[in-house]
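Tutorial sheet, problem 5. The three components below are modelled jointly, 757 residues in total.
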Amino acid sequence: MLQYLFENGKAVGHALWEHIYLCTTALLVGLLISFVFLILFYRYTKLMDKIVHFFNFLRLIPGVALLVIFMPVIGVGFLPTLLSLIVLTIPTLLINTHSGIKNIPPEILFCADSLGLGKWNVLFHIQLPIVFPFILLGIRTALVDLISIACVASLMGAGGLGRFILTGLAINNMDLILVGGVIITILALFCEFVLSAIQSGYSKKYLGVSK
Amino acid sequence: MKKKINKQLCICSLVALVLLTTGCSSQKDAIQIGSKDFTESYILAELYALTLEDAGYQVERKFNLGGTNVTHAAIKKGELDVYPEYTGTCLINVLNMDPITDPDEVYDTVKNEYEKQFSLTLLQPAKASNSQGLAISAAISEAYHMTTISDLQANAQNVRFASQGAFEENPDGMPALQETYGEFTFKSVEYYDNAIKYELIKNEQADLIIAFTTDGQLTDDQFVLLEDDKSAWPPYNIVPVIRMDLIERYPDAKGALNRISEALDNEMMQTLNAKVDIEKQEPDAVAKEFFNTLNVEGD
Amino acid sequence: MDTILSYQHINFYYNSQKVCILKDITFNVEKGEIISILGNSGSGKTTLIKLANRLLVPASGHILFKGEDISTMDTAILRRHMGYVIQQSGLFPHMSVAQNINIAARLNKEKTYASKERVTELLKLSRLPCDEEFRNRHPWQLSGGQQQRVSLARALCCDPEILLMDEPFGALDAITRLELQEELLQLQHQTKKTILFVTHDLKEALALGNRILIIKDGEIQQLATPEELTSHPANDYVCKLLKAGRG
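Model answer (structure tokens):
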């Protein structure tokens, strides 16, 4: 495996960059859209509950399957694949943020309202900072999902490390499978580690939780 | 209570017995036929299966296994007994030898080496040769006057290449091309799944794709098959690769399989492929229909 | 005498007209007085004060704040005139003590109330330490009593005219409760705030209130000074209540 890496370092590096670029872009845009969605609907609790319920059901369908289902409709190439991936992150992000918001002790919201802060101040200064660990949890989950689902992206002209795994499987070449598989695993573990550290650091410092 | 348990026990042991016997029988008697993961391979493998069944043998179908490496490894191990292969693939991918242009020479070389190295042999080759190739959009071909692969190499910077992972890695893919024609610096290279390659040209998302010379879609004017003017690729005649011990066990299998090889030329193969890839029929239905016409004609 | 808050024929229903929580509530609150609102659970006492800052809206009737109908006022502005303290303190865990205290002032860009000096003033008023270390503590690093004091300081930050307090000392131990009752009286003496104090404890009600409002099943039983209550109880229920409280 190391020999293959050595000989094809440039190609592997390029694929790694493509993979990271694809996943981070999908995540950031997904976050943005989730955020807008949240702001528009967060006070309509019954509606949000129904939407989150629907998303929970959607998450039962494996992301890879959804990607393949979208393909004939959306097409292939970088942008369509990115679009599909964005759509796949939104449920995870929304579900976690919503769950966090619902878990805020009611007396805190009560006091915030009583102070006459106004609903936007309450959202941005009270609710979101308290919910931040949940948001981070959503990001963690979504990112790790994205990194693995993006392996299929290589079949759709979007590049990425999946090419090595899938080609390796097709031509029965273990080196290729390992190159793709090991790098993706390291990438996922790295993201998980960093975000987890941020999450527990924040929780400890600001919320007194030793999670 | 006791009656119920007894009944359940009976049913369980009956089921186990049935499973055992069928399991045993398939291991002992059935001929294992494999195929790779594309249309033509499914059709050929199904034809082999039908002809062997017609000759009275029990057959186990193990289709859609993957690429050459997978099928070759499987047949060496004895997990397959026969599968459809291409003489050129054997020469370059399996034996890692240099290309040879004469079809008979390719066949003889491969047969000898296979018998020597793997206890495998080749039966009668078909006239049909499904070579690796490159297909380009007719529009681009006209614009830059590209009809051969040498033309392509000279104009590569104007061409968007829709490649595949396997093509990059296989010895008879990009490596073979580069050895014969030199470096290709394309305008862009992206990787896609084999199933959507012709769509990519149709949707103008790519200009150049990997083609197989018997692809059904090549009957369409939109696509131009570039000529392999410097013979990077050898002939790829369709041939059954078979375990030598299988022929010893079932001598009639040889004749049955050769019937198929005799009936196949490039045009026929392209037509059969087109039925699946363009008309969207099922490979086994297409194979069955074709096999029935063979039977009607008689031996 | 200056009426600062006036309830006029307030009716409140829970679960859209099915259960009546408050029936025809009418009474006035004078500026600078402490009214103890005394009742059992389910009597409607919490609902009563939530109507004052429009956390709840009545089915019918009006509430006037300084003569103005509160339904016509901007809710956020109305609430800044009223401080609210609850039993669970409701401090914001991600903010320090100082940040909790002056959050309303900071977000409403009121510089004087948001200043460090103002926080110091409020900490002193609430009998809390004024040093940096304490200011920077987070709520989960405080005792129950300290949390309630900070909650009070927070409620007082923008100098509201009225304090609404819903069983604020209910979760504390007996000694701390007595301390805080004392301190509340002293604070009120200093600042002359009008306070509506909800409780189910007769002793607490009598100790704190200039007047006691006794409420049962959503109806006012009696609103009177402690002396008047004991000498002229309005009905059997008030009698029983006083007797039970004393025992």
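Marking note: The mean pLDDT of chain A is 87. Full credit if you identified this.
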